[in-house]
């Protein structure tokens, strides 16, 4: 691949890596699994990047690839990642420090969200990222109305989990 394409990918990934960290946080429960999933998502993004046409924002496309990768690899009973060797250049991106010592409220919320199914987790994540229902629907491949209905049901579910 061209060096220009690689530099473009590295910049986009660097600018949007918090999206990937947040998705990893939703689908993993320890630092090692988080790092493994982050690496696998990065590899999948890199493999798919030449096909990225720019029809949507990079962040929307990255959400879709990252969520699909996470959902595929981290089903309820599957906690290991089959990694892929990558023999590319070693200058890729510098990881931003990610604070694993979250405040107690955020930990409780993640604990509650972790009990949701895969699609519900993705929907909550995008909702908390202030994505509008049109973008949520586009990313998840559902209708906008369906996204709204699902989100209302999830809110009720989370209230029950957080306030039994």
UniProtKB/TrEMBL annotation:
Domain RNA polymerase sigma-70 region span(s) in chain numbering: 15-80
Keywords annotated in UniProt: Sigma factor, Transcription, Transcription regulation
Gene Ontology BP, a term: DNA-templated transcription initiation
TM helices/strands, residue ranges: none
Gene Ontology molecular function terms on file: DNA binding; sigma factor activity
SUPFAM superfamilies: Sigma2 domain of RNA polymerase sigma factors, Sigma3 and sigma4 domains of RNA polymerase sigma factors
InterPro entries according to UniProt: RNA_pol_sigma-70-like, RNA_pol_sigma-70_dom, RNA_pol_sigma70_r2, RNA_pol_sigma70_r4_t2, RNA_pol_sigma_r2, RNA_pol_sigma_r3/r4-like, WH-like_DNA-bd_sf
Organism domain of life: Bacteria
RNA polymerase sigma factor 70 region 4 type domain: residues covered: 111-158
PANTHER family from the UniProt entry: RNA POLYMERASE ECF-TYPE SIGMA FACTO, RNA POLYMERASE ECF-TYPE SIGMA FACTOR
Family designation: Belongs to the sigma-70 factor family. ECF subfamily.
NCBIfam families named in the record: sigma70-ECF
Protein name: RNA polymerase ECF-type sigma factor
